[in-house]
Amino acid sequence: MHFVIIGGDAAGMSAASRARRNDPAMAITVLEMTEDVSYSACSMPYVIADEEGDMETLIMRAPAVFREKQNIDLRLGHRVEAIDPKNRRVSGKDAGGKPFEISFDKLLIATGSVANMPLIPGHELPHVFVLKSLDDGRRVKAFIEEKRIEKAAIIGAGYIGLEMCEALTERGITVQLIRNRPELLPWLAPELSAAVDTALREKGVLINHGCTTERIETHDSRLDICCREACFDAEMVLMAIGVRPSSFLAKEAGLELGAAGAIAVNRSMQTSHPDIYAAGDCADAYHVVTGEKTWIPMALTANRAGWAVADHITGRPVRMEGVAGTGVFKIFDVEVARTGLTLHEAEKAGFDPVEVVVKTYSRAKTVPGSRPVWVQMVGDRQSGRLLGVSMVGRDNEARRINAAAVALHARMRVVDFSTTDMAYAPPFSPVWDPLLVAANQLLKKI
Amino acid sequence: MHFVIIGGDAAGMSAASRARRNDPAMAITVLEMTEDVSYSACSMPYVIADEEGDMETLIMRAPAVFREKQNIDLRLGHRVEAIDPKNRRVSGKDAGGKPFEISFDKLLIATGSVANMPLIPGHELPHVFVLKSLDDGRRVKAFIEEKRIEKAAIIGAGYIGLEMCEALTERGITVQLIRNRPELLPWLAPELSAAVDTALREKGVLINHGCTTERIETHDSRLDICCREACFDAEMVLMAIGVRPSSFLAKEAGLELGAAGAIAVNRSMQTSHPDIYAAGDCADAYHVVTGEKTWIPMALTANRAGWAVADHITGRPVRMEGVAGTGVFKIFDVEVARTGLTLHEAEKAGFDPVEVVVKTYSRAKTVPGSRPVWVQMVGDRQSGRLLGVSMVGRDNEARRINAAAVALHARMRVVDFSTTDMAYAPPFSPVWDPLLVAANQLLKKI
């Protein structure tokens, strides 16, 4: 059995390692187009924030370990250009431009996602960056250090854009956040989005809402980032307007695409060709709340899906229940967490949803350090089910969100969630955990 | 309808307030034997720790508010001495020693729990304290301040004993912790208990294991706390060896007692007499893991049970699913959290349990501030169910425990819990949350 994997990051290397553990004899080949495998991309903002930070520490396992200790044929600089499902072959070019062709018995496409880059005038300037690959991270870090950047513009307010607001501010760089929408985080209730907005401004981030960047111009070593109404001055631009699935190879090979143009997979991670799997950011997934397909690229999902592929090809039972869309990020001391559906998403999915937004406190009021926490909770009038939760807080409490995520997996009703036995001690929470306070309020509306 | 409540703390006042909200016309009488109602007893260690702390700030709602705003006939200093279920009457004496007798249509017994005090020689000395009521808190705080206490002994290592180790140390008092068991927290795996032990010693707490206190002697203003092998010197003693349900009145009235001698209640919080309810620390509860009765007195349970009683007597549907035994406490920067059953408890309950103990990290290793976290997880070989989790950590992560508590309420299998979509961002967790790491390990053993 020859197991070939296209892509050597989270999903690809998880699958390779687990396949090796499951079957010491299997031939395993990984084709990675860059020179990097198995790194913590999500940690890049934290290394950039740290003057002493070394991007190379983000490499979780060196290529030599995969090759020598795990007997995985890991080929770097190998770009796959075509998949031939019928003849079970992949072909492409290596770093030197030399063509290669490899046969497989089972194939995993783990090509990840690519950062969106709008094709506006100036997007190709050397001062314009994205932050997706480890090489992107190296370039950004080297640029801000070598050029002693004092002012940067970040376009977009996704996880990466916001985390980089913190990272660059920590480096003493003035950050202009440029946002095409009129609000910072449109999927949050206005009170929650405003709390994040305030926290950013407190730290000196300049936020410009409602500006769609139309062009980027250079003047000496400086840039003008121009929207219709105004231009903003900076020395570099980070384009952080999201990612899209890297599903081109699969599409060309005639494999079915699913949610958001990601590769459609079943509950065993098989594509429309049973010997070809997809996992990680390039694949879609089931949503545990709707039961429908969705595309929410996350590191945990990629790792888990990689394992599932390895288990399935080695004959172990696999059934991927799906994702709840759980996510968390921190900007300075503000944490934002979510799981499940927003009110709008719930409406679109055909529920009859209702929402509450509550402000409560992170600890007993009698204990020092208690901070406000906002909880936004959505339930379904018809079934009584809990559909989603978002939280904004400033006291290390975003870890509470997992309680709601587990409830979504269990398809709990709000009433059942509201009677769960959550932990209480004054330094941790009020007697009623913020999630319980929200659930009690939501019950009155359902 | 006359609703009479014995006891004016968490369960009693929650019931009174909710009954009033549910029914503006109902006659509600609360008989409280002390002069205090509705206070946050769990916060007392934090007020004692703070030189400026004022015990009176722990009163959540003043008696006047209950009386004037909520029209509740709240009678302080009223000690009930007998319940006559047949004639629906309670009788007792007021603060002046004057007898009273009151008829009820519905009665709630919310008499709470009492601190255990071993009847050893010296237990009645004025330097020997418990910390249960607000008056206990006032006495302890006044004593350490007026006598300028420099050395204290704490007997027992429950939540209160350990929290008071921190509180007194914060006040510059040297603490001797005296423990009859050979280990600090016998319900934790040795690695987890040792981590807590180390954290206490780092802060200067002197821990003496395996010492059963046999007598307390005075020498001038100093005390000798004597075990068989040794005597320890201190100026005050805090006896923190647990609590027992205050179920004497119910027993005398012929009501059925249940787990641990607490008042037996059904899923509507009714005792063996359908018009008499019990709630809070004096009542037992169903355990969501075993389905059997248990007695785990907690503030949230008391508040929730008080609401349930009010709902039931006003004709609303009530079904108390039960408790998971979720608890959390903090000593200095160490947090300990648990939910569900330990291995030993699971064996006793008739499961075929298996356990893992894993040490992992609180954040991505690449991010500053990552600290070790231990997770102890118990599952059932036969059903595959998750039965319990304990955690010890030092990075504000005990809030993770609620995810496991929710899973216990949902009667989730370990395999299902292991595939839940938990939040990941480098400052919050490794890609695999500590609970998922433990679940993955436990799966291999089930």
UniProtKB/TrEMBL annotation, chains A, B:
Entries under InterPro entries matching the protein: FAD-bd_OxRdtase (IPR050260), FAD/NAD-bd_sf (IPR036188), FAD/NAD-binding_dom (IPR023753), FAD/NAD-linked_Rdtase_dimer_sf (IPR016156), Pyr_nucl-diS_OxRdtase_dimer (IPR004099)
Chain ranges of the Pyridine nucleotide-disulphide oxidoreductase dimerisation domain: 330-430
Signal sequence region: none
Cofactor: FAD
Pfam families named in the record: Pyr_redox_2, Pyr_redox_dim
Family annotation (SUPFAM superfamilies): FAD/NAD(P)-binding domain, FAD/NAD-linked reductases, dimerisation (C-terminal) domain
Protein's UniProt keywords contain Flavoprotein: yes
Keyword field: FAD, Flavoprotein, Oxidoreductase, Redox-active center
Domain of life of the source: Bacteria
Residue span(s) of domain FAD/NAD(P)-binding: 2-302
Family that this chain belongs to: Belongs to the class-III pyridine nucleotide-disulfide oxidoreductase family.
Name of this protein: FAD-dependent oxidoreductase
Organism, as annotated: Desulfobotulus pelophilus
